[in-house]
Each structure stands twice: as structure tokens, then as C-alpha cells.
Amino acid sequence: CLALSLLLKDKVSFPGSQVYRASLGSYFSLQQAQVNPLCIVAPQTTEDVSTAVRALTTPAPTCQFAVRSGGHSSFSGASNIQGGITIDLRALDRIELSQDRSIVSLGVGASWGSVYSYLDGLNLSVTGGRSFGVGVGGVSIGGGISYFAPRYGWACDMIINYVVVLADGSIVNANQDENPDLLWALRGGTNNFGIVTRVDMQAFEQGGIWGGVVYHPISTVDEEIAALSEFNTPDTYDDYSSLISSFAYSGANGISLIINSMENTKGVVKPPAFQPFANIHSLGSTMRMTNMTYLSMETEAMQVNGLRYASATLTIESTIEAINATVCAWNASVPFIQDIPGIVWTVVLEPLPPAIYARHAEGNALGLTGRQGKPLMVMMLSMTWSNAEDDDRIGTEAKTLMKEIEGEVSRLGKLDPFVYLNYAASWQKPITSYGEVNVDRLLRVRNEYDPRRVFTKYVPGGFKIQK
């Protein structure tokens, strides 16, 4: 830390300072905010990142460090480190549009909300995250599901260039012409190769969006499951319509709800794709003509910073039977967690049709090839609670529920091996789920660009490449 402070001056903060406290306080989850590094480095340029990395790894790495952009990963140590050095990239937040309006360059410290605030006024958008405060960095290297995914694929598929600081401090581009193997690996291979400081992303024309949230009583669950399966039928899938269905239990009022986030990015009011849901009794709705800035604010409002959060994930085929097994297992688990203070216990189901996963399957590391056009669904178990003393119990109940869902869906023959990295729990192995061929290729790329394995051994946060 002292060496870094000599090199980077006031860009290094120490425990007790206001800058240090503000950095920790900006993490999404309390588990991350309560991790205390020896110092925090806040680079303002890619060259600053290079200076920091070179200091940490020359002549040989001796100190563990963490790297964060938005700090939205929830588990302890994902992008912070106890007793090590945390590199906080939030000052790398520049947003620049190319003269022909086709490419937007994003510093990884920018939030998606700030990106949309910039682009909405220009009638442009990008395949970014859906919550205002989520950082550009993690979404860009972990996959990234957006409201525009059915039209364009994963967020990482729309990135044509990454600017990366490698373990020796060198700065490289990863694109189709320079380091194309690194470009492929960063599309889902996350933080195993270097520190991404900027992404250049394809932009597209975008007008108003019809979207919002619709609330349904849990008594409509059978209708909801049928509508959800029908929505995700490949032959009739509407590439302009996006859906997230949440089955949520809130301990504060002791009730369960179904919450549908629905967006039509063509601006069609009440499109046919959403008709099955329109026929279901609802309790309230925020559906209106809007834009990405306000939609991301709405999502953000449902996820207050500074609580205890966790998530876990798996992927199912979106048949009525598989969806029903998932929701039934969630419902049966509620009595085991309902007395935990502050509990919100939610199963989230997101359609993953071939329009998303197969569109650029060979161009990313996610391994979603050979599915024969099956409609899939990403399931996330999302958990919020109040007290650290319940952490172990939450973890146990989460593993129990995930094992139950996995078993029930497997018995139906409808479990897909894919584990979405950006929703994964610390105990899951998302990169392994990409398949042996892709894992072997990722290892080769890692060995080429990080032969000392600095980002494997000395950056313990996130998910590592494992056979």
C-alpha cells in the first residue's frame, strides 16, 4: 500500500478515511461492504490501473488483490478482499459515442443507469444491465442478459473490443483483429485474464419502450406457469418482448406474490406476446411508455443497497412440468425460512430462448451450443435478509432448495447444465458448466496471457477456471 501511495498519491485511501469508507459503503451487499482491505486504489485512467498492477506483480506478485467496478456481486470477497488491496474502478466512467453513432465506448466503472441516461436522449441504446446502479464491468465479462437480448444476444456478444491491463501491466486491445482469442475468452470468462478498463459496444437506434411491472396474487400460480411456458415457445417468440417472472415471499408482511417485469422494446402497447398474462387477475401495474433510464430506476428501487444478499442459479427447459416443479419446490421451502428477520425469498425465472443463446454461440465462451433450439429458462434463487447470524442458515436452506429443484427437474429430464455466472453462488462452478472443450480453450488463453496465473492465485474473488 505504501508503494502504491508513492506511485498514485491520493488515489490510494486507507482505513479511517472518508474516501475509504465511501468506497466500502458503495457496495451493493452488506457482506461485501463489511470486508476491509488494507487500502483501496481508485485509478482514474487505464494507465493508473497499469501502474497499480505493475507495482503489485513486479518483480513477482506477493499481495492478493481484488477488482471491482459497480460492486454488485453479492457474496463476500467477490470483488473486495480482507487484508489485501482492492482496486476500485468506478472513476473509469467515461461514456463516448463514435461519430457515426454505431459504437459507444464505456469505462467499466460507469453504471448502466448513467449509460442509459446518456443514450436515451440520442434515441440509442445498448445491450446492458437492467438495474441503474449495476456496473458495466461485471455484466460485460460474465455474459449479460438485457431487455434487448432476443434481438442481439448476450451483452458480451455486442462488445467488439475490450481494453485490458494484463498481469505484467501491459495494455492491450482484444478484438477480431488484435488478440481475438482473448476477445472470445472475455465473453463469459470473467476476471481470469486481466483487468478490463473499457469496452467498445455496438449501439443501435432505440425509441420508447412499453414496459413496467405487473403484480399478481400467488393464487394465480397455475395460470402464470402456463403463460410463462407459452411465452417462451421458439416458433412464436417475439424478439421485441422481454419477461422476468418472480415468485417472491416477503417475511415483512408474510405474503407471497408473483411479479412480472415486462418490456416491449418496439414500443408496442399490449403486444400479443403478453396477452396470456393480461388475462390473469392482477393486483397492480406500472406498465407505460418509458425508456431504459426509468426502467433501470424501477428495477433499482426493488434492490436497496446495504442489505444482506445472495443468489444461486441453474437452467431448465421451459416446459410447464419443469417450471411447476421449480415453483412448487420454492413454495414448499418457504416455511423453513419465513421466521428469518428481513427475509425476501424469491425464485426468478427468465426465458432464455434460442434467439438469445444461439445467436452468437460460437463467438463467446458460454458453451451454449448443441441445444437443438430448445427453449431454456434461467432460474435464480434470490435472497435478502437482515442479520449476519442468519448467514449460515440462509446458505444451508439455499443449497437444500437448489438441490431439490435440480433433482426434480433432472427426474423430468429437463435440467440444462448451464450455470449463469452473474447469478451464481460462491459455491457453484459456472465456468465448468461451459463444457470441457470451452474450459480447455479458456485454460489455453489464460496460460498465454497470464502465464504466472496472477489473476488466478492473487485475485481470489469471482469464479476461476476449473477442469
Write up this protein:
With 467 residues, the protein is α+β, with helices and mostly antiparallel strands. It has three domains: 2-88, Uridine Diphospho-n-acetylenolpyruvylglucosamine Reductase, domain 2, CATH 3.30.43.10; 95-205 and 436-451, Uridine Diphospho-n-acetylenolpyruvylglucosamine Reductase, domain 3, CATH 3.30.465; 209-423, 3-Layer(aba) Sandwich (Vanillyl-alcohol Oxidase, Chain A, domain 3), CATH 3.40.462. The protein contains 16 helices and 20 strands. The strands form four sheets. Strands 12, 13, 14, 15, 16, 17, 18, 19 and 20 form a nine-stranded antiparallel beta sheet that branches. The chain has a five-stranded antiparallel beta sheet with strand order 5-6-10-8-9. Strands 1-2-4-3 form a four-stranded mixed beta sheet, with helices on both faces. Helix 1 runs antiparallel to helix 4. The two termini are 34 Å apart. The model has no long low-confidence stretch (mean pLDDT 97). It holds the Pfam family FAD_binding_4. Belongs to the oxygen-dependent FAD-linked oxidoreductase family. It comes from Mollisia scopiformis. InterPro entries: BBE, FAD-bd_PCMH, FAD-bd_PCMH-like_sf, FAD-bd_PCMH_sub2, FAD-linked_Oxidoreductase, Oxid_FAD_bind_N. GO terms for molecular function: FAD binding; oxidoreductase activity.
Helix/strand layout:
Layout: H1 2-8, E1 12-13, H2 18-25, H3 30-33, E2 39-41, H4 46-57, E3 65-68, E4 85-88, E5 95-97, E6 103-107, H5 112-120, E7 124-125, H6 136-142, H7 149-152, E8 159-165, E9 171-174, H8 180-186, E10 195-202, E11 204-205, E12 209-217, H9 221-231, E13 241-250, E14 255-264, H10 275-278, E15 284-285, E16 288-290, H11 292-301, E17 308-317, H12 320-333, E18 344-352, H13 354-357, E19 376-385, H14 391-411, E20 415-416, H15 436-449, H16 454-457
Helix pairs in contact: 1-4, 5-11, 12-14
